[in-house]
Amino acid sequence: MEKAGRQMMSVLWITLPYSAFLSFLVGHLWRYRHDRFGWNNAFPETDRAHRFGATAFRIGLAGVIAARVTDMFASGPHSQPEGPIYLAITVVEICALAIASLGAVLLFVPDMIGSPARPVVSPLDRVTFPMLVAGLLTWVAIKFDPNSSDNGYRTAETLFAWFRSLFSLHPNPGAMERAPLIYQVRGLVLMLFIAIWPYTRLASIVADPVYRLARRVRPSSPVGPARELSAPQRR
User: Fold this and answer.
1) How many CB atoms neighbour CB 98 within 10 A?
2) Nearest CA to 63 among 52, 51, 55?
């Protein structure tokens, strides 16, 4: 029984994360070859609300990632950021989450409740919005966990310790095995979200501007002398 439990923990907190990372990488390569992240190009009738929602989601997502990464590296095994650093992280994260949530609502809700001429909402897109809601609710639950204190920062002891270990040669599934249920649920939600990200419209919304910028800065291939000489001469 104990051996089966350890195998289950290994599947949940080692196999599943690395599978999610692999899906994230392979999915982006597939999207690049499939449509060059051109979700907006496929639907030129995209209205102003969608464009505003896309911009708001990009800004909010960037703020959330920046706040989370700062929190992860500024936290110790049994301590969390204090003073101005903690205040700045909290303010940035709350504002970024509000902006990203507004953008997600504008991107998903009108198409989900309406009947557009084209099926712009895929089955994965319909799953994505509830997952965003689940991510927001689990963030609230762990952010205001009354059991986290100066002597024991549960997020650093569980999620941060486990996530950092995935990028080393010694993953630490025990950090999540001992974690409370809400922390385990958040870890699973994040892994599933990473796995399906490339196949949703959110990947296009984030990657499409980068792809467009890369195309603009990429120098066009000049016409060489040999190519000019090979052209048929007109008399």
Assistant:
1) 14
2) 55
